[in-house]
């Protein structure tokens, strides 16, 4: 049974009709709305590559049904900042060269931004704990942690 889902994505109203309201939000974002920041990683909400914010909370969009975003504010990497005015976490990732292959970067940045909104002056141990469930295969975790600490210092 199809359902029309209205939400706000990166500050813009979006209305999508889906055949299955349980379809993952990730698929709606990427396939219907052309938002490519969140990546398909594991499909099990364990790697973090698909992380987006819903009403300011970091969520794994591969496991959140599209219907759960109805009437809510969804922010993706594209809506977090702009090239001419990046979010502080995005700017810190650039400054610390915290990107290698880039596949995990979406999740690392989105999780970090939500974490810093809750914990503006974290310790390094808190940053590591906050990002413990975001998987990076190329080993840039030390640079990612340095970037989050830089963003926290402002």
Question: Which structural traits does this protein have?
Answer:
154 residues, alpha+beta, Ubiquitin-like (UB roll), DNA polymerase, domain 1, 5 strands
What is the average per-residue confidence, as pLDDT, rounded to a whole number? 97
Low-confidence stretches: none
What quaternary form is this?
single chain
CATH architecture tag of the largest domain: Roll
Strand order of the largest sheet: 2-1-5-3-4
Our measurement of the CA-to-CA distance between the termini, rounded to an integer number of angstroms, reads 48 Å
Structural class: alpha+beta
CATH class categorisation of the largest domain: Alpha Beta
For this structure, what is the CATH homologous superfamily of the largest domain?
Answer: Beta-grasp domain
CATH topology of the largest domain: Ubiquitin-like (UB roll)
- Could you say which overall geometry the principal axes of the C-alpha atoms support? globular
Q: What pattern of helices and strands is seen along the backbone?
A: EEHEEEHHHHH
User: Roughly how much helix do the residues carry, as a percent range?
Assistant: 25-40%
Output the radius of gyration.
15 Å
Number of strands: 5
Largest sheet: 5 strands, mixed
Number of domains: 2
Number of helical runs?
6
| Strand portion | 15-25%
